Amino acid sequence: MSFQVNDWWILLTTCAVSLCCVIPGTFLVLRRMAMYGDAISHAVLPGLVAAYLISGTKAGPGLLAGAASSGLLVTILIEFLQKKVKVQHDAAIGLVYTFLFAVGVIMVSQFAGMADIDQDCVLFGEIAFVPFDLIAGIPRQLLISTGLLLLLLLALWAGYRGLYLSTFDPGFAAAIGIQVIAWHYLLMAMVSLSTVIAFESVGAVLVIAFLVGPPATAALFSKRLPGMFLLGSLFAIVSSVAGYFLAMALDANVGGCVSLVIGVVFGISVLIRKYLFRE
Amino acid sequence: MASDYTAFFLLQDPNVRLVLAGTILIGIIAAITGCFTFLRKRALAGDAISHSVLPGVCLAFLFYGEKNPLVLMSGAIASGLLSLVLMEAVTRARLARPDTAIALMLSVFFGAGIVLLTAIQHQGNAAQAGLDKFLLGKAASITREDLQLIGLSACIIVGLIAVFFRGFYLISFDEDFAFSIGFRVKFLQFLLSVITVWTIAIGIQSTGVVLMAALLVTPALSARMWTDSVVRMVFIAGFFGALSGYVGAFISYTAPALPTGPWIVVSATLLAGISLAFAPGKGLVSRWAVHQKNRRKSTDENILKLFYQLIEKSGGAQHGLLEEDLINQRSFNLQTLRTGLKRLIRKGLVVQLAGVYSLSEAGMSAATRVVRLHRLWELYLQRYLHLEPDHVHDDAEAIEHVITPEIEQMLAEELGYPDKDPHQTNIPPETL
């Protein structure tokens, strides 16, 4: 197995994408909103396809805007169903995202010829194509995901207090004047953006593994937010690298392999915590 | 195209009958089973299970070497159950919260499925062609063998649900109660899980693993809007499920290249949208109508109260009032006041003569009643909740519109038929 420049690009992109997911994912896990990640990752599809069709290109801010707005749309719809129509929580999520995803898939299959996107790409992405789409010699995906990672870090640094307090004690946060709802929507926007970035590489369903897996594993060992971020990032990178080599060995989809490894890492961590860190 | 449609609707093509029977059966079974998934608030777990059957299907194919429906279904059931067991184990051991456990199992199992699927595809085994139809569903791929399996499964599942209906019903609402009156809750839960996984395993033929959860939950949610009875809910959901399945078969017949799952889900969701909007009682429209009706009622009663207060103020001398008099007594939106007055005139409670408004006899008695309720409630709050007299008004302002004659009677009795409220104004006696 020879390791070439292309492999490095794919590996780096996978790592960058998984790191992007750790930041909002940690908050999702802590807020017991993991399934919102599921919902949003499915629901960005129609926005993504619409943006493809309108702008005719995979790059560009229009795409991010389209996908991010459908991410917010799903949040608003779920809240509308719960509060105004009194639909129970789980059914509201299930109803909204399956519908949006179905609409997205129909759009993809109707306009398959017009946009560079197909059903398989929607479901499990194709990170192996990353090296074929270069800007100034560097893969576009890698540039975008690194850019988003910096943006997310900036948002985390600037909004740490608000995100932290509204996550752990929304009542107290509201009492001292923090706009809990605004932080909720900011987090949803962060999830949407990471989802959009990860979408192309790993597809709609596997994004959830990236969002939830490393933070859930980190939560086994750390009860503090900074610790969760660091451990989560570590697990994300380890899983990405191991998953990549597994994919090469099996000649299988990279996103799927990384998700599988994320699951294995969680399983091993459970055992380690049980037998080594016995409380 | 037109001949396609007639061929479909007249069921001329035996293949159409086959596919149609398959999708409709799947729609019905999924919707019926889904009622319990919905009532037990396990919609998201259902979603995770349906994604999780994929690796089972792939492994079964790898071991058996061809697409035998029974083998694939067994594989699907096995891996669906495994994910469910793991989900519950992780949650019970407090290793992760339920939502995280669900999301984790969903993505990891699906990831494993994708790994197997892509690995099988890259092997180039000719028999694997069409294995990916399980992702988004392909109703047209239902064969006679598949239909036999679907039909048999449907009979067993419906039979089991009919036999254990009471138990399933009880554990959906109150497990502790079910246990206390002697139901074997653990067994029923297990059986229901098996039925759910089984339903998903046969459903992925038409809808695919990615969207199967919608076929479970969306018809159940729609049905819930129309009824409060579980039995009726099951039948209505089954009907909605059948309709969605019908649409799926139609799409698959007229546009064979398209995946059917998304179309089935879109049609099920449209039915849900109609139900959520228009179902009597619980739907948005009827909820809104009730809201409007209540608002109109309280506006009208507030206007009547104004008349009473102004008449009372003038010691009974003043009977005709101008709009300004009413506005000055209470800051009303002029438009609201005018439409309210018009409504009261229509109801014969208020009479208007040359811009001067006065109460009719019926209007006087209605106004008296509202004021009486207001003041009775103020007194009740003061006497039983020990509120200060200046704290009782706002509460009474809201409650006066909802007190029924029976409660009025009880209040008066409880308070000893009083004639003074906490502000020492008269409580008018009951009007006939």
Short description:
The complex is a heterodimer of chains A (279) and B (432). Chain A is mostly helical and 279 residues long.
Structural key phrases:
heterodimer, A: 279 residues, mainly alpha, ABC transporter involved in vitamin B12 uptake, BtuC, two-stranded antiparallel ribbon, 10 helices, 2 strands, globular, B: 432 residues, Arc Repressor Mutant, subunit A, 2 domains, two-stranded antiparallel sheet, elongated
Q: How would you summarize the topology of this molecule?
A:
The complex is a heterodimer of chains A (279) and B (432).
Chain A: H1 5-30, H2 34-55, H3 61-83, H4 89-110, H5 119-124, E1 134-135, E2 138-139, H6 140-168, H7 170-175, H8 180-221, H9 225-250, H10 254-275
Antiparallel strand pairs in A: 1-2
Helix pairs in contact in A: 1-2, 1-6, 1-8, 1-9, 2-3, 2-4, 2-8, 3-4, 3-8, 6-8, 8-9, 8-10, 9-10
Chain B: H1 2-9, H2 14-39, H3 43-64, H4 69-92, H5 98-123, H6 133-136, H7 144-163, H8 165-173, H9 175-180, H10 185-226, H11 230-254, H12 261-278, H13 284-313, H14 323-329, H15 334-346, E1 350-353, E2 356-359, H16 361-385, H17 393-399, H18 405-414
Antiparallel strand pairs in B: 1-2
